[in-house]
Specification:
334 residues; Rossmann fold
């Protein structure tokens, strides 16, 4: 099938592009390079030993997206293009609502015009807000606490409306927990522009010597060692989850919401200790105040993913840290 991967040079999109190509699909990437690098295109081609179509541009550019649908017979859209910084979304909500929500509308307009029925959406576990129960099931209430999360939830509601309006549509929203790690080739990984906000990219940059120490936000959470607990899922597992989602949609119509996580939580210190073990580097850290909006623990119920997608994660946090360290070393050596 021909799969349009929006945001396909970004962290998760690039891993999905590799996975889809490996499964025999033809991938067409559109990316505006706002938080990704052009070199990733070459690297995807190197990993897959395949020619991947890349179109530089924005999903909000109507004529560009129209031309893509016209020129390539698109069967599936996997929509990764979107902004994802929570702090930035609080400072600049317009950017988030405009890009994330209007971007999805723009894609859907063209899907409707060209009769494309299958859509895979990158959602986030942040739509749940503060967890009321663990593990978090898909039926858990949604109570987003920032504009980024609200934009994701709004899109989910829109997708549900779309599916109700046309019973031929096949739509899935995948709620990611904490995607981490890098491709086993060491060629692609998470390479945010500027200083990273998330734990794993920061940890790696301390290990490699780019930053002197890790700030650990909070040491008095109600967790195993006082630091925050999250469900860290290897990005390659996540990519595989998308492939399973497409296969599921080939057999099922309607709108579906599914968590992608491992079902297990790990604390900041557990991750740090594992990273030290794998890298052989001492990772200095200092405790800081809790970060606004952070919760004690968050991890997924993975029952629905197993049942519907016949998918489960296979990588451990040891595998995750190894792949991340392998990648960051090659990234900084070059
Ligand atoms: C964050 C986003 C979430 C997004 C996810 C994807 C926030 C509030 N949420 O989740 O929307 O889907 O990333 O990766 O930003 N930590 C430190 N020091 C750091 C960075 C993080 O101690 O420098 C701690 C945090 O307090 C938390 C854990 O590490 O306990 C994970 O943080 P992070 O990687 O930012 O992920 P989330 O906040 O869970």
């Amino acid at each position: 099938m021909n799969i349009l991967v929006t945001g396909g040079l970004g962290y998760i999109g690039s891993h999905a592009a590799v996975k889809f190509t490996g499964a025999g699909h033809k991938v067409i990437v559109v990316d505006n390079l706002s938080n990704s690098k052009i070199e990733v295109h070459k690297k995807i081609q190197l990993i897959t030993n395949n020619k991947i179509v890349f179109i530089k541009g924005d999903v909000l550019n109507k004529s560009l997206i129209n031309n893509i649908f016209k020129n390539y017979h698109i069967d599936v859209v996997a929509h990764f293009a979107g902004f994802k910084s929570i702090s930035e979304s609080i400072e600049n909500p317009i950017k988030y609502y405009l890009n994330n929500i209007s971007g999805t509308f723009s894609i859907f307009n063209q899907m409707k015009k060209f009769g494309v029925k299958i859509f895979v959406f990158s959602s986030s576990a942040t739509v749940y807000g503060y967890p009321k129960s663990l593990p978090i099931e898909e039926t858990h209430e949604t109570s987003p606490i920032n504009p980024y999360a609200r934009s994701k939830l709004f899109i989910e509601k829109f997708l549900k409306d779309m599916a109700l309006s046309n019973n031929e549509l096949r739509i899935i929203s995948l709620r990611y927990f904490n995607p981490v790690g890098a491709h086993l080739s060491g060629l692609i990984g998470e390479n945010p522009n500027g200083m990273p906000n998330n734990l794993m990219p920061f940890l790696s940059r301390v290990a490699i010597g780019k930053y002197p120490f890790l700030k650990i936000y909070g040491c008095d959470y109600k967790t195993v060692d006082g630091t925050g607990v999250r469900d860290y899922i290897h990005v390659d597992d996540l990519a595989e989850g998308h492939l399973s989602a497409i296969n599921f949609l080939l057999k099922n119509t309607g709108f579906h919401i599914i968590n992608l996580g491992t079902g297990k939580g790990h604390s900041v210190l557990e991750l740090l200790n594992e990273y030290e073990l794998v890298s052989g580097k001492k990772i200095p850290y200092k405790f800081y105040e809790r970060r606004d909006g952070d919760v004690d623990s968050s991890f997924a119920s993975v029952k629905l993913a197993r049942k519907k997608l016949k998918w489960k994660s296979i990588y451990s946090i040891n595998d995750i840290c190894k792949s991340e360290w392998n990648w960051i070393k090659s990234e900084y050596e070059n």
